[in-house]
Amino acid sequence: MAKPTGFLEYNRQDEGHLSIKERVKNYNEMLVPLSPEEINKQSARCMDCGIPFCHGYGCPLANRIPEFNDYVYQNRWKEALTILHSTNNFPEITGRICPAPCETACTLGLHDDPVTIKHIEYQIVEKGFKEGWIVPQIAPVKTGKRVAVVGAGPAGMAASQQLVRAGHSVTLFDRHENLGGLVRYGIPNFKLDKSIIDRRFEQMKAEGVEFKGGVNVGVDITAGYLKKDYDAVCLTMGAGVARDLNVAGRDLEGVHFALEMLGEQNKVLTGEIQKSDAQINAKGKVVVVIGGGDTGSDCVGTAHRQGAKKVYQFEILPKPPESRPDSTPWPMWPAILRTSTSQEEGCERRWCISTKEIIGKDSKVSSIKCVEVEWQKDDAGRWQMSEVAGSEFEIKADLILLAMGFVHVEHEGAIESLGTKLDNRGNIVVDENFHSNIEGVFSAGDSVLGASLVVKAISTGRKMAAAIDAWLRDK
Questions:
Q1: Quick one: 439 and 297 in the same domain?
Q2: Contacts from 211-216 at CB under 8 Å and sequence distance 24+?
Q3: Which of the listed residues 404, 430, 460 is the one where a domain comes to its end?
Q4: Range of the domain at 291
Q5: Residue 475's pLDDT is what?
């Protein structure tokens, strides 16, 4: 463990961020890391808690958190990096955008602020890159087996890296020219600069992963070709079908899915498209974001940087409590009010708001009509929503962004041509070894889970790779 009395001596200290005035001027990462002295004190707060719920319950990757905290406290950063990489392929991603369920499960959090696990993780991997400790891990022996991975998001990335390190020949396909999936096209640069992804892809390329971007499997090439040409096929396309809004006026100009805006802005920053060719821009506009989650928050931050005049964010669910409610006791993920850095930059947040109609003028959105709702349990204990009489209101809107979550993986293309079995939510059905109903076809990440966390995608990608490796060797 780290310092036995550290949690008694030091208070939690979070990483900083650039001032709002400074950061909204551009799309640069806004995180300001703690100093070496400060991070040493934070690692010292890790307790000798006996059963580390952060590791065993909170983290889907089962990161060995007490161990790497101890190494950081001892200034043994290289050992900390080895421990961290033993369970997590991409801590530079999770250390930036993971909501850190490990911290809400931290034993210290029972009576005090939890350990700053996420930022310690970030510091470890960034020091590893800075010192040149992170190098390609090339398999000493090749198996001669070929694996196709379809979908280059975090699940596909993790699976590809684990499989190539096991000695298999791996080809990673993605319909986008640039790889990375949601972390490239769905996460704003001010949270995750895309050079962070690119440097990890350079490592994967050196390890032997072959990249085939701009290839839409099921359209550009048949899924049957992959089945014939590869010993195993992995489907890791993510949950790409967004939840839509079924109201009058949905088809008006100026109503877009959140990822349309976020993806387009990221493409502008990387030069994939010219700024003048962008179809969605919030400059000088009144923006309404429908959906109170992380994707909606990312739209808020992007709208600010584009120069929005006014930003609203509406959520249909009730406002969460300020402190942990009895319904989500430790170590569960607490349903509490959270304010993101984007929301801190300014937006009018409202809860229990349902959209009734989108109103337009000359085929363009001009306003949105909403109503307040209330939630009550029925006799069976299920939550039911009802409108509040006389609460309808209408506000001006020039741009409406739908950020209401995602329902399931896209079925067109690879899934339909393969005949992969789906569950009642539209996700791919797999067994305990991530094997689908089609022999030699596996799946992981949000294609199986539905919309979930990046840390879960990495975890299932790693587990699927281990199952495929065992299956191939048995064959």
A1: no
A2: 211/152, 211/171, 211/172, 211/179, 212/171, 212/172, 212/173, 212/174, 213/152, 213/173, 213/174, 213/176, 213/177, 213/178, 213/179, 214/174, 214/175, 214/176, 214/177, 215/173, 215/174, 215/175, 216/175, 216/413
A3: 404
A4: 244-404
A5: 81
Name the domain boundary from 106, 131, 156. Answer: 131
Q: What is the DSSP letter of 354?
A: E
CA 179/CA 146 separation, integer angstroms: 20
Residue type, 52: P
Q: Are residues 266 and 396 in the same domain?
A: yes
Contacts of 202 (CB under 8 A, 6+ apart): none
Q: What pLDDT is recorded for position 1?
A: 63
Residues for the chain: how many in total? 475
Whether 457 maps to a domain, the answer reads yes
DSSP run (H or E) holding 21: helix 20-23
CA distance linking residue 176 with residue 194, whole number of Å: 14
**Do 40 and 113 fall within a single domain?**
yes
> What's the CA gap between 215 and 237, in Å, rounded?
13
Share of the chain above pLDDT 70, in %: 100
Structure tokens at 351: 């809860």
What's the CATH code of the domain at 200? 3.50.50.60
- Summarize pLDDT for 319-375 with one digit per residue, the tens: 999 999 998 999 999 989 999 999 999 999 999 999 999 999 999 999 999 999 999
At 290, is the secondary structure helix, strand, or coil?
strand
Task: Note the pLDDT tens digit of each residue in 201-235.
Answer: 999 999 999 999 999 999 999 988 999 999 999 99
Specify whether the CB–CB gap between 324 and 105 falls below 8 A: no
The answer to whether residues 158 and 236 touch, using CB atoms and an 8 Å cutoff, is no
- Do 154 and 122 have their domain in common? no
Question: Could you tell me the two tokens for 424?
Answer: 């009642």
pTM equals 0.96
